[in-house]
């Protein structure tokens, strides 16, 4: 998953969202929930290949962008499409992440729809 920062945000996220939705995960290395969320996204990334781009931003080092999009809790997510933020949320559960993504990013017909390939909420 690509790492972006305040300086590259316009090209790597805003401009790129003209082609496919871009999912931004705001995380920090010291945050265990953030690292769990990044790991979940990395596992899901192939399910959305060709339909979405996944990137991560260090929350602490890119506070300007986090503030601009209302991210105050880690892990925080914002989905961009057509150069605009379309949805945002926080939390680490893989099923919640997938549900939110599926609201913005249509599933391909060959993507499994059952819950067997993802961790369950505890």
From TrEMBL:
It comes from the Bacteria. It comes from Ralstonia pickettii (Burkholderia pickettii). PANTHER family: GEO12009P1 (PTHR45663:SF11). This is Thiol reductase thioredoxin. GO terms for molecular function: protein-disulfide reductase activity. GO terms for cellular component: cytoplasm. Residues 103-122 are annotated as: Disordered. Residues 2-101 form the Thioredoxin domain. InterPro entries: Thioredoxin-like_sf, Thioredoxin_domain. Gene3D superfamilies: Glutaredoxin. Pfam families: Thioredoxin.
């Amino acid at each position: 998953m690509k790492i972006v920062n305040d300086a590259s945000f316009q090209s790597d996220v805003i401009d790129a969202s003209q082609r496919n939705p871009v999912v931004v995960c705001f995380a920090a290395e010291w945050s265990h929930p953030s690292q769990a969320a990044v790991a979940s996204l990395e596992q899901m990334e192939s399910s959305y290949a060709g339909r979405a781009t996944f990137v991560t931003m260090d929350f602490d080092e890119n506070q300007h962008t986090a503030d601009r999009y209302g991210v105050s809790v880690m892990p925080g997510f914002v989905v961009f499409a057509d150069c605009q933020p379309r949805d945002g949320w926080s939390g680490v559960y893989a099923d919640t992440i997938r549900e939110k993504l599926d609201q913005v990013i249509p599933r391909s017909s060959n993507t499994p729809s059952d819950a067997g390939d993802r961790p369950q909420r505890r």
